[in-house]
Design goal:
The protein is mainly alpha-helical. It has 19 helices and no strands. It is globular. The termini are far apart.
Length: 411
Amino acid sequence: MRSYRSLFRTPEFTPFLLSFAAFAAAQTIGGLALGTLVFRATGSPFLSALSMFAPQLAQLLGATFLLSGADRLPPRAVLCVLALAFAAGTAVLALPGLPLWAVFVVLLLQGLVASLGGGVRGGLLNEILPKDGYVLGRSVFNMLWGLTQMAGFAMGGALLLLLSPRTCLLLAAALYVLSALATRLGLTARPPRSAGRPSVSATWRTNALLWSSRSRRLTYLGLWVPNGLVVGGDSLYVSYAPEAAGMLYAFGALGMFVGDLAVGRLIPPALRPRLATPLRLLLAVPYLFFVLRPGAALSAVAVTVASVGFAASLVLQERLMSLTPDDLAGQALGLHATGMAACQGIGAALAGALAQLTSPATAVSLMAAASVTVTLTLAAMGRRPGGHLGGHEERLSPAERPRSSQVYPER
């Protein structure tokens, strides 16, 4: 599948995208509103950054205990419950006088619930699309995320000039409800991909199995760490340039859109595996110059160019799917999504702490330098025997690939 026309003719692909677009718009508008609310109340770059990315950090706990549900629960029902839970939590965050500790409790609960979202959506997309349409479909999914972020942050920045952050949070809650309705009305009910009940033991066993291959480990680390460090630096936009934060987030989303369009539609499949390291370096290098504290216009240019490098995730997700059997696709993608989200949360906390000790501009550049270092280290490890980061090393062996109910018997 090499054309957008054939892609959008695929049943359920369009409603799948629409439900995700509403959810993503709610996240961007709500996240910017909450970060602004916390920064105005505390004046702390650390707390502002952490408020925007705390749910991602909390997803690490969910990945540890709940992730087997990504393949063992009906996907439409999970996505509906997830959207409604976020709507309720965001409405609570809009309550006047809510203490700061309660804000972070709500964010923790949202993160735990969200830990299923990435795996369920990834596995469902894998079911909706034929095998030869996955990369193109995933690129459209990522481009939609970039466009929604661009529009959401731009709209959120404009709304914050006219409305209070709490009113913007209520608008975000309404968008979450819209996402739930689009999911319920636009997607058909599907059975779980794997037999058996979700459980903590099943989650741990499958995660351990996915982690057992050196190629998958290096792929996961390439997906998580360089990205998480750069996004941690991105979390400082509110404290780096309070009046231009929405613009910087919007230009970052524009760069992400361009990168996913190029990799998903224009780059030949044979060339894609070679781009993982160059794209990850592109993601970080422009931020090294933030230590010079460029103006808003130059910062926007740097952010746009750097964000093209987010397309590395598309290359690495394709590699991950080539190393994973279909009946574990949901949990494999869920482990990627929650691990990446957790690294972004850790990155935000680290960047906020560095900004408290130095300055937001210095912290952004230090996070970028760390990302470059990790990328070069992983590239060197991938060139060693057994790494095979440029190819498709071992999938699970036949002994590992019976039905999930046989591989992971319930206790």
